[in-house]
Amino acid sequence: MSRLHITTTVNGDAQEFLCEPGTTLLDALRGPLGLTGSKEGCGSGDCGACTVTLDGEMVCACLVLAPEAQGRRIETIEGMAGAEGLHPLQQQFLAHGALQCGFCTPGVLVAAKALLDHNPDPSESEARYWLAGNLCRCTGYDKIIRAVLATAAQLRQERSPA
Amino acid sequence: MTTTQFHSPATLAEAASLLSAAGARPLAGGTDLVVQMRSGRAAAQAVVDLKRIPELTGIRRTADGGFAIGAATPCTALKADAALVAAWPGVVEAANLIGSVQVRNRATMAGNLCNASPGADSVPALIAAAARCRVVGPAGEREVAVAEVPTAPGRTSLAAGEFVAAILLPPQTGADAYLRLTPRTEMDIAVVGAGAWIELAADGTCTAARLSLGAVAPTALLVEAAGAALVGSKLGEEALAALSAACQAAANPIDDKRGTAAYRVAMSGVLARRAVLKAAARAAAAHAH
Amino acid sequence: MNAPTGKLENASSKGYRIIGTRPIRPDGVDKVTGKAIYSPDFVAPGMLHGAILRSPHAHARIRAIDTSAAAALAGVKAVVTGADLPDDATLLERDNTGEALHVARHCLAVDRVLFDGHAVAAVAATTPEVAQAALALIAVDYEVLPAVRTIAEALAPDAPALHPDHTVRGAEPGSLPANIAAVSANSRGDVAAAFAEADVVVEGSYRTAPVHQGYIEPHACVAQWNADGQGQIWASSQGHFMIRSQVGAILGIPLADLRVVPLEIGGGFGGKTRVFLEPVAMILSRRAARPVRLAMTRADVFRSSGPAPGSESRVRMGAKADGTIVAVELDVSLGCGAYPHDESTPALMSATLPYSIPNFAFTGRAVFTNMTTSHAYRAPGAPQGSFPIECTIDQIAERLGMDPLDLRIRNAARPGETGYFGLPHGEVGFLESLEAARAHPHWSAPLAEGAGRGVAAGAWGNYGGPSSAEVSVAEDGTVLVTEGSPDIGGSRASMAMMAGETLGVPYEQVRVVIADTNAIGFSMVTGGSRVTFATGKAVIQAVEHVIEQLRHRAALIWGVETEEVDWRDGAAWCGSGDNAGQSLSLAAIAARANNSGGPISASGTVNAQGYLPGCGVHICDAVTDPETGVTTITRYTAVQDAGTAIHPDYVEGQIQGGAVQGIGWALNEEYVWNAVGQVDNPGFLDYRMPVASDLPMIDAVIVEKPNPAHPFGVKGVGETGIVPPLGAVANAVSRSLGKRMAELPLSPARVHAALTAS
């Protein structure tokens, strides 16, 4: 069995790993790269718990083959907080109680960040439809949406204080 | 079969050569292929990633004023092309109903077509649009109507080693729309899908129409009688009722975990009518400008 | 069940410092940064990868299993089958309730498979790929048998008996049809006479489908069973002591020899209160002499874990013209799956829990079917039992022209009135919850065109039971609370809040650890909505012991009697002698602990009594497209009595989460079987749980009618929220369409069929 040697960038860091051609990016992240923040909820792209960004766009890592990561830029939940502390989304999620078991939370946070990167002023409906690919079974989505909209308002305020 | 090779060709010719080998499968978005490889439903000795080939990604205008959409172009990228959205909003909205945003950032219409699921969302819209494909293979290049690609669930008319290189849309002379019926608002496979294309004269008379149904037969259907029922009418009750009846008659669905046959037959009439009205509203609006 | 009476002022009027506030949870940063370790994340050095071979047949005899080729594959370190677990006699000897036997056989079949997905063999190998390759080399010779997929099929006269030797408690052998697993019954008064006096009688038949808890984290564990008999298991669950007791009983391991380490849990909702993988991982590990990881795929979870039973029920209800319900007959059948699991008792117990009904006759049963064994799902049995009642009350209201909330208020059980088991209710908040719903703006808001407004009430009895806790004070005065209840809803935060409130120190000065089975005394599972109540009482008890010690240490320091020392506001206060009026803070005393008698810590253990039910009342506005049968929920309000909301965010979260699970149960979730009894939709694509775009905000309204039997008035909140939605949604849709919908889920195809049936 010939394994592939992949070099890629994860959360800004150069990384490399060995994988089979059929290994998914999710398995590569959770296995050889030791980044277990992205979760497997279904393995078939139906729950979003494995959401990461690939070259800036959010994807289900379980639907990407690990060799595709060659030369590309991957961002996972582990890269969301910076040296300055938690990302505002992470803070607002805690402040709003927008997580209970926390298992879907990494995927939701990555997806929510992608939403706000694309659309800094989403409506409730736009936020719900954007996050439709992220299943949550604990919260009923209410506090998640509130936290996302609150973060959007906070970031808009910070960019252009009234 | 274990996947033993992964290739990332940079040119179309290289891809064609790799895909001519037995057991080689093209990879665009992977949102069907990867799932099927994991479940054992699909076997690929070699996976050939098409996404690093420049000709296969992006939306270009064709000489006749239509569009050529590279096979490796993800669904969300379609929304960013203003001209495409203006001309073929039904095709774009159909493609952007597939899965979730995460899925649509990867999934492609070409992949959706060649996966040949009876419920594929982009296919009825493409058929209603009279879309064609550019197919590349060992024998060279050819063009084929999208409607002729799926032949049965999971099966296409593509020969060994052939793959879709582009989806071709004609120039828009009317307006299109796509609607689907799903139990939830997102994340479901269509129970019924309806793609409609309408051409209206300035006085509102329908001069041409095509109606395609998804998820009600082994492959998406072009319901010729439905389109014929509209031509010459002003889309009044009688014409719409005839359209719905034609759709119900053409539908040949099964009972499955997504819906009963009876329900699907009934809904094909309901959705066809709603899709036609949506397309007609777009056509009328276009006339108003 | 006790019936505490008396009044307790609610949180806001009591002036608590911490109780009722909304601090950040202590485990929050790990959860939002992806650092928290859940079951599938855990890695043990030298770990092998296990895999399980599962039956594709819903019912079959295993004629033979040949594992020799799998065992010979390079990289395979162990192969086991059901024969490697103890035999029936041994298991019954270790646990004469039969639970160890049934749990073991569900985990790994011996001579028969009883459901699609039933495990028949397992391997442990150096890589997941080798493990999967080994499974493909195991040859199983099945004799396929006819399968019974539904309650009706299981009770048909010629149905195959899944457990011919099963005896039903409380019934004569041979007196019941085959495939009855359990029966339940209760009655009071004279229903026949009462029906004769009723001014209106409504009857109907109702059906719900089996549904799954749908936790996003699939089951997984790592087990290590050493040659000296000692073992370790790392797993998420709703009770690591439960894992210890179930695995200990099955494998004959003394409990102190088996250390179970709780990992973070990605949802449970009742479904993780039993083991599925752990015994198998243990025997693989023993064989291989290395730790072994076993994990379920999503398909495994649907096929082989413990969903909620489907139900078929008949109800008949009689009422007077003034709305007084005088008689109810209810019969509920629940499909319990392959092995015994009885929810008929809680179903009947919960069905009319919020109401006082003088005459009733309830019967119920659990029925074996060829699907995976059912298991608890948030208020187990209560949604199925309550659904027919709430739909019928709605119809009574329509027939009488009465407001459906007024009708429920008329019949609401008040404290002191007689409950289901003949005992008086304690300080239940049924009336207050109903009145809060009636006063809510949603109830009087104008209804959109074509929409229907449905209301339903529901309750869950909750529980107390055994818990242990320890509290110790570090040298700097920070406080450590150690307990053994896995945190599935924010209980670490609420324990810290209750401890801090009792001690009089800030929330941030208290840290909570959920310790493994070797490090803390026994606690019953996190379930039954018991933790804030029972483990909270254990924690508070331990804190009160610590306060006694702190007072004593201060007394020593001041040279006074302990009785002269008060504890308040986080400090000891001297009441007499030269130091009268002086105080010593917790930190000051802690700094001198070793010189005043040694480290300061205490334990608390409870078998908590005095728990009280939670009542919920939900209002649902829904529009159903009459052409397509597609339902949209446009507004949803969920009122619930929490006793006292320790942390309102987490109480709201429980209410909202339960409500949305119930909405899914009502609208689109169901198990689908193919013709041969295989699960047709074992994935999130076709098992349709609500997604974010399906829902509006869920307005959660907390009512506080404190429970006098808890120091802060707590009533359990986790489960009640799933009970009312089935009725609330069905009533809304029925009103939207002008036609009674009695079969769940209200999927578009089913609604359309019901609309076009007549």
Contiguous runs where pLDDT drops below 50 for at least 5 residues of chain C: 1-9
- Strand content range of chain C: 15-25%
Mean of pLDDT of chain C: 96
Q: Can you count the helices of chain C?
A: 22
Mean pLDDT of chain B: 97
User: What is the count of DSSP helices of chain B, taking H or I runs of 4+ residues?
Assistant: 11
User: How helical, in percent, are the residues of chain B?
Assistant: 25-40%
Task: State the shape of chain B.
Answer: globular
Question: Helicity level of chain C, as a percent range?
Answer: 25-40%
Structural class of chain C: alpha+beta
| CATH homologous superfamily assignment of the domain at 1-36 and 421-460 and 612-758 in chain C | Aldehyde oxidase/xanthine dehydrogenase, molybdopterin binding domain
Give the assembly state of these chains: heterotrimer
Beta-strand content bin of chain B? 15-25%
User: How many distinct beta strands of chain C?
Assistant: 26
Write the layout of secondary structure elements.
The complex is a heterotrimer of chains A (162), B (289) and C (758).
Chain A: E1 4-10, E2 13-19, H1 25-30, E3 51-54, E4 57-60, E5 73-75, H2 88-96, H3 105-118, H4 124-130, H5 142-159
Helix pairs in contact in A: 2-5
Chain B: E1 5-7, H1 12-19, E2 24-27, H2 33-39, E3 46-49, E4 59-61, E5 67-70, H3 75-79, H4 82-87, H5 89-95, H6 101-104, H7 109-115, H8 122-128, E6 132-137, E7 140-145, E8 150-152, E9 155-156, E10 163-169, E11 175-181, E12 192-200, E13 206-214, E14 221-222, H9 224-230, H10 237-250, H11 261-288
Parallel strand pairs in B: 1-3, 2-3
Antiparallel strand pairs in B: 4-5, 5-10, 6-7, 6-10, 8-9, 11-12, 12-13, 13-14
Helix pairs in contact in B: 5-8, 9-10, 10-11
Chain C: H1 11-14, H2 28-32, E1 48-54, E2 60-66, H3 68-72, E3 76-81, H4 88-94, H5 99-107, E4 112-113, E5 119-125, H6 128-136, E6 139-144, H7 151-155, E7 180-188, H8 191-197, E8 200-208, E9 220-225, E10 231-235, H9 240-251, E11 258-262, H10 278-288, E12 292-295, H11 298-304, E13 311-319, E14 325-337, H12 344-351, E15 359-368, H13 382-400, H14 404-411, H15 430-439, H16 441-444, E16 451-460, E17 465-473, E18 479-483, H17 491-503, E19 510-514, H18 531-558, E20 565-568, E21 571-574, E22 583-585, H19 586-591, E23 600-608, E24 614-624, E25 631-641, H20 648-667, E26 698-703, H21 724-737, H22 748-757
Parallel strand pairs in C: 1-12, 10-11, 14-15, 18-19, 25-26
Antiparallel strand pairs in C: 1-5, 2-4, 2-6, 3-5, 7-15, 8-13, 9-10, 9-12, 13-14, 16-24, 17-18, 17-23, 20-21, 21-22, 24-25
Helix pairs in contact in C: 5-9, 12-13, 13-21, 14-15, 17-18, 20-21
